[in-house]
Amino acid sequence: MDISGKVAIVTGGAQGIGRAVTECLLKKGARGVTIADVHEQKGQETVNEFSQQYDNERVTFMYADVTLKSQMEDVFRKTKTTFGRVDIFICNAGICNEYEWERMVDINFTSTIRNTYLAVEYMGTKNGGNGGVIIINSSTAGLTQFPVLPVYSAAKSGLVGFARSVAVRQIIDTKCSVRIGILAGYSSLFSSIGFLLDIYVYEHLTCQ
Ligand SMILES: NC(=O)c1ccc[n+]([C@@H]2O[C@H](COP(=O)([O-])OP(=O)(O)OC[C@H]3O[C@@H](n4cnc5c(N)ncnc54)[C@H](O)[C@@H]3O)[C@@H](O)[C@H]2O)c1
């Protein structure tokens, strides 16, 4: 996809993968990127840094909790007002906390579905948008069993099922010109720790 002149929204773009994706979009010539995140301080720092490195006018931060529809609607509305359009939605915000599993399902799974449909509403040609691309950030934990993170794995698996199903159905693509893709990455550090924890769990819990 040719990124030049395109406008993107990146959830969870204050740090980590979302921050890296934001930088990549700016490097490839995106006209504008809105970072939507709950980490206000990090978000502002990232925007300040990228504004100096790239162009002041091309990157902006908005405080937004992905679980709150009204705040995400605001993000789409303001991005359209500021940059004139929305072409790319990177649905990346996520947490990994089995102790707060209900909130994790809400952030990683439920909100991703709600915000994908919201993005189709704002980007789709059916409602006067230009069409575009939605990328959902899943995980390799969504493709295979992950005993130490059962709910994380379930939420990420759910995203794979969702993205595959809407992609096959092609209703969104045909009627709205919005394509949906899914990422399933992993960090080697994370998987090494996960692997060691798996061994620990098997040795200390399942064998008792
Ligand atoms: N790091 C990994 O190894 C890895 C591997 C595969 C998939 N992922 C997925 O990639 C995505 C990003 O992971 P990361 O490692 O960059 O994490 P990170 O913790 O570095 O960044 C996540 C960002 O999401 C934001 N966020 C959290 N809850 C939010 C909410 N309710 N509303 C808005 N923003 C919120 C955080 O403030 C943070 O800036 C996640 O969905 C994660 O599950 C990560």
Gist?
It contains seven helices and six strands, in the order βαβαβαβαβααβα. It is of the alpha/beta class and 208 residues long. Strands 3-2-1-4-5-6 form a six-stranded parallel β-sheet, with helices on both faces.
Span between N and C termini? 53 Å
User: What percentage of the residues does DSSP assign to strands (E)?
Assistant: 15-25%
CATH superfamily: NAD(P)-binding Rossmann-like Domain
Q: What's the CATH topology name?
A: Rossmann fold
Q: Please identify the top-level CATH class.
A: Alpha Beta
Computed CA radius of gyration, to the nearest angstrom: 18 Å
H/E order of the elements? EHEHEHEHEHHEH
Query: Counting H and I runs of at least 4 residues, what is the number of helices?
Result: 7
How would you characterize the overall build of this protein?
Keywords: Oxidoreductase. It comes from Saccoglossus kowalevskii (Acorn worm). Its EC number is 1.1.1.141, 1.1.1.232. InterPro entries: NAD(P)-bd_dom_sf, Sc_DH/Rdtase_CS, SDR_fam. The protein is α/β, with parallel strands linked by helices and 208 residues long. The protein has one domain: Rossmann fold (3-Layer(aba) Sandwich), CATH 3.40.50. Helix content is 52%, strand content 15%. The protein has helices at residues 16-27, 40-53, 69-83, 101-123, 150-169, 171-176, 188-206; strands spanning 7-11, 32-37, 59-63, 88-91, 132-137, 178-183. α4 (101-123) links the parallel β4 (88-91) and β5. The radius of gyration is 18 Å and the shape is globular. Bound molecules: nicotinamide-adenine-dinucleotide. Residues 11-12, 14-18, 37-39, 42, 65-67, 92-96, 107, 137, 139, 185-187, 190 line the site of nicotinamide-adenine-dinucleotide.
